[in-house]
Specification:
Elements (H helix, E strand, L loop, with lengths): L1 E8 L2 E18 L2 E14 L8 E3 L2 E19 L7 H7 L5 E13 L5 E7 L4 H17 L39 H18 L4 E3 L9 E4 L3 E2 L6 E4 L3 H9 L3 E12 L2 E18 L2 E14 L8 E3 L5 E7 L4 E5 L7 H7 L5 E5 L1 E7 L5 E7 L4 H17 L1
Parallel strand pairs: 11-12
Antiparallel strand pairs: 1-2, 2-3, 2-4, 4-10, 5-6, 5-9, 6-7, 8-9, 12-13, 13-14, 13-15, 16-19, 17-18, 19-20
């Protein structure tokens, strides 16, 4: 499996990536196999080259108060995992630009429970420009404001998209963290919010985005160990990436892609260098194209290829064989799992049917009936479980 992990060294968090093979330790008792442990074998560490190491320095803001200097406002594109970006681009003709101040001041409590004041001048360099922007974006989440509420069209018309019923927490205002709860909030940020942010290749995250209505957010703009001032590594934020390319800078990124092999979608990844082609018109730089150079393909060995075969279920109807119910552990990025584990003493076990039948339309709009015998094989056991888990969301 492809695993992102974070190391702490030289007062910095280093985000790395490795390919591991999980090997089960099985014990047979009374004719039944039991999983008693998991061993991990590193197949390939994708950070053997120092060029591929990303330095991370997360900043933790608890009970933040922001002062904005409106004298110097700039327009930058924004994005957010909490809203359907495809709909935003369609609504605003590909435009996600938001005007905000470059210079701000934040009064907050850090992860060591110390009171601090940070003055951020976004005009100083690109790192602080995006830090200022990200801090304002995340602070908005604490006040129930999404960046779509601040979008401007060419004519300056503001439009607020309707928030789905299940996303209403995003429109709520957070509550200040009491002194006695601050240590617990820090633990929650370090264990859950940080891993969620890195898992989605984000540069910032607000507590509201992971279902916790508390005044806390994290900002971490990635830097790299690449010596050239015009090259750095970016792992995901498209707005940040586009801005750098438009500025004439080369960028090194990890790119996930899919190849169709033997009628299966195969997930791969590669490290590529993107180089902008710039044309100057009336003294202004314009991005007219992007060149690509593959630095490292992480899937040279067949062992590193992950086969993917997505199934699409439209208008599904499900029948469950309740006589085949089994207990399995479950989890979801939609809820803070650390809190769930704590509340239920580490148990996230759910009893569901092992054998199910799905009637649905597939991606070709063909009517299908799929009978899933979860007791036949581990693949179908987890397929059955996942299908029921996702179906629950529809209800």
């Amino acid at each position: 499996m492809n695993e992102t992990y974070v190391e702490y060294a030289d007062n910095k968090f280093i985000q790395k990536n490795k390919i591991t093979r999980k090997v089960p330790k099985i014990k047979e008792e009374n004719g039944k196999k039991q999983l008693i442990g998991i061993e991990e074998e590193v197949v390939k560490d994708n950070n053997t080259s120092p060029d591929l190491v990303i330095e991370r320095k997360p900043y933790f803001f608890l009970n933040p108060k922001i002062k904005l200097n409106h004298n110097n406002e700039i327009v930058l594109p924004e994005g957010c995992l909490s809203v359907p970006m495809e709909s935003i681009f369609k609504e605003y003709n590909g435009n996600s630009n938001v005007k905000r101040p470059e210079v701000i001041e934040i009064e907050y409590i850090n992860e060591n429970l110390e009171k601090e004041i940070m003055k951020i001048d976004g005009s100083k360099d690109d790192y602080w420009k995006w830090f200022s922007r990200c801090a304002q974006h995340e602070n908005d989440h604490l006040d129930g404001v999404l960046f779509v509420d601040r979008l401007e069209k060419e004519k300056g018309i503001l439009k607020v998209l309707k928030i789905p019923e299940d996303e209403k927490i995003l429109s709520m205002k957070s509550v200040e963290i009491s002194d006695s709860e601050l240590p617990l909030a820090v633990e929650f940020m370090q264990k859950h919010m940080l891993s969620t942010m890195y898992g989605f290749s984000g540069i910032g995250i607000g507590a509201m985005q992971v279902g916790a209505p508390i005044r806390a957010f994290i900002v971490d703009i990635p830097k790299s160990k690449i010596t050239s001032t015009n090259e750095f590594i970016d792992f995901g934020d498209s707005s940040y990436l586009t801005s750098r390319l438009a500025n004439g800078d080369s960028v090194i990124i990890e790119e996930i892609y899919f190849a169709s092999i033997d009628n299966k979608l195969v997930q791969k990844s590669k490290i590529i260098k993107k180089s902008p082609r710039i044309k100057e018109v009336d003294g202004k730089k314009q991005l007219i194209g992007i060149g690509e150079e593959v630095i490292n393909d992480n899937n040279i060995s067949r062992d590193l290829i992950i086969e993917r075969k997505p199934y699409f279920f439209l208008n599904p109807k499900i029948k469950m064989d309740l006589t085949s119910r089994i207990i399995l552990s479950e989890g979801t990025p939609s809820v803070p799992m650390e809190i769930i584990d704590k509340k239920y003493n580490g148990s996230t076990n759910v009893k569901r049917a092992c054998n199910i039948e799905l009637e649905y339309l597939n991606e070709k709009l063909e009517r299908k009936v799929m009978k899933i015998q979860g007791d036949r094989h581990d693949y179908w056991k987890w397929f059955s479980r996942c299908a029921q888990h996702e179906y629950d969301y529809l209800e």
